[in-house]
């Protein structure tokens, strides 16, 4: 089996979760690490037997990586994906992939022209129940989509700053929005209300909102809503509900429910979606087959565009129309 050498730029909690799943796979070697926090980089390097590098460029120039995971926050992505693509290094760019659509679209073009294997961190697509939902919905007329993402406040300063995280829809609820796009098609327009109710009591410098709701119209004409809060200290959950004239389908965490004239069934997921995503990325690198992946950098850019449009709609209190490069999938 051909060994696939993997590097990491940014080694926070998400990166380390990826590393732990990769460590359990045959034919994968964790070879290279860079993080601006040198102490953390050394600790993680010792844990996973990887070499640390002084910069992202040094890692990419090392000749020791076939693929790289970009796990830095969205405000700290300047030039990294482009540098990997220009060196022919395959890429998994964690979500969100940026905060400026002009910059992200330029990255997208460079990545596509490079011919590398490329994907993003939309791991929920790899749930077995998501694939079952996609198969069920493929010939259904969806009329209404309802979704939410509730949880607590992440313990990092940058997440509280709108200019660094983009807010909860961009940084967290983007997973639910991406699944809506994946299963129901592209978004045509959005309107939104974002408010800050409590966050400055947590941090007086906070600029992000802590409650928000977004209404949208899909390319199909279906309408929907996605509501988010980071003030749900006592409960964390996320669900998407699809309503049609003769069916109901819900994705609630690791559970799928389908109700129609012939059935009312509940199916529990049997897979670790992080493992499935990482295994597929490695196999795509090994075989040179981009088609194995359930999403690419362009998909991530399209999802980001919807979330940033929602931010614009919330700021202006006006409906924002979208002209995506690819409406849905």
UniProtKB/TrEMBL annotation:
All residue ranges annotated as the Gfo/Idh/MocA-like oxidoreductase N-terminal domain in the record: 4-118
Domain GFO/IDH/MocA-like oxidoreductase as annotated: residue spans: 143-245
Alphabetical list of Gene3D superfamilies matching this protein: Dihydrodipicolinate Reductase, domain 2, NAD(P)-binding Rossmann-like Domain
SUPFAM superfamilies: Glyceraldehyde-3-phosphate dehydrogenase-like, C-terminal domain, NAD(P)-binding Rossmann-fold domains
InterPro entries: Gfo/Idh/MocA-like_OxRdtase_N (IPR000683), Gfo/Idh/MocA_Oxidoreductase (IPR052515), GFO_IDH_MocA-like_dom (IPR055170), NAD(P)-bd_dom_sf (IPR036291)
Pfam families: GFO_IDH_MocA, GFO_IDH_MocA_C3
PANTHER family, alphabetized: D-GLUCOSIDE 3-DEHYDROGENASE, UDP-N-ACETYL-2-AMINO-2-DEOXY-D-GLUCURONATE OXIDASE
Protein name: Gfo/Idh/MocA family protein
Organism: Paenibacillus chungangensis
Lineage of source species: Bacteria, Bacillati, Bacillota, Bacilli, Bacillales
